[in-house]
Amino acid sequence: ATPTAIMVGTGKGAEMGILVKSGGALEIAHKVDTIIFDKTGTLTKGKPEVTDILSYNTFSKEMVLKYAASAEMGSEHPLADAIIAKAKEDSIEIQTTSSFEAIPGRGVLAVVDQKTIQLGNHKMMIENGISISDAESDFNRLADQGKTPMFIAIDGVLGGIIASADVLKDSSIKAIQTLKAMHITTLMITGDHHKTANAIAREVGISKVISEVLPGDKANQVKKLQEQGNKVAMVGDGINDAPALTQADIGIAIGSGTDVAMESSDIVLMKNDLMDVVGALKLSRQTIRNIK
Ligand code: ADP
Ligand code: MG
User: Fold this and answer.
1) Ligand 1 atom closest to the CA of 77, numbered from 1
2) Quick one: pLDDT band at residue 1, thresholds 50, 70, 90?
3) Domain endpoint, select from 142, 165, 188
4) Total domain count, the chain
5) Residue 287 Cα to ligand 2 middle (Å)
6) Which ligand does the CA of 261 lie closest to?
7) Would you say residue 292 has pLDDT above 70?
C-alpha cells in the first residue's frame, strides 16, 4: 500500500465529509460484505415524539403523562426527552422524584408523589409481574406501526401506554437500496421490541433484524457475524454502539452522534448522510485501485 494513495483517499474523503481516522480503514473497507446499522439515531433521526397516550384501570391520560414525565426527569434517554416534551406541551405539572433508577435496556424506576412508577418496555413489565393483558392488543397495534410503546405501572398496576415514533432519515432508504445493488448484506440492530424493529426495517428495506438486544450485547452480535466468515462494518451513533464499532472490521460513526461512538470508530460521517456509507466503500475501492 502506498502512503500516497492513502493520503489522497483520506483527503478526498475529508472533502466529502467522510473523515477517515486510520489509513488502514481505506485498505479494508472495500472488502466489507455485511453492514449492520443501529436503528435509533442512525437509520432514524433519533428524535422520537410522543404519538399516543392510552390509559387503563382508574387512571386518566393526564395522570399517565404526569407520572411518566416526572419519572423520566432523571433519564438521559431520547425517549425520556420525548415524554417530557409532550408533558410540557400539554402544560402538565412535572413533579420531583424521591428516588430514581435507570434500568438499562428496559426503562426507569422512580418514586413520584409517594407512588412507585415503573416505566418501560414489555420485558420490564413481565419481569416485574405487572398484569398487561388489557393492553396487549393496543401494544401490538402500535408496535406494528413501527412505534415504540412504553408501559407505565403505578404502584404495581398498569396505568397506561405512551407510544413514540421516530422518522427515518431522508438518506436511509436510498443508502440501503444502493448497498443491496452492490451485493452487500444489510442488517438492523436495536434494543427495541421485535414488532417495532420489524416495522421500521420493512420501511427502510432491511430484511435481517436483530432486535431486543441488550446495551452490552451489540458487540457480540458483530462478533458472531465475523465468526461466520463475514467482513463486517457497523454503523452507529450511541454510547451503546461503541463496543460494536470497535469490534467491527470497520466502525462507522454518525457525526452527530456521541463522542464515544466517534472515538471508537474508523470513519466518521460528518454530514450524517447514510449515502456516505456507500461513499466510504467507493473511496476505499478507488484507493486500492491506485495502490495496485
Ligand atoms: P435503543 O437505543 O434501541 O432505544 P435501549 O437499550 O436504550 O435501546 O432501550 C431499549 C428499550 O427499552 C426501548 O425501546 C424502550 O422500550 C425501553 N427503554 C429504555 N430506556 C427507557 C426510558 N428511559 N424510558 C422508557 N423506556 C425505556
Ligand atoms: Mg442509536
Assistant:
1) 23
2) low
3) 165
4) 2
5) 30
6) 2
7) no
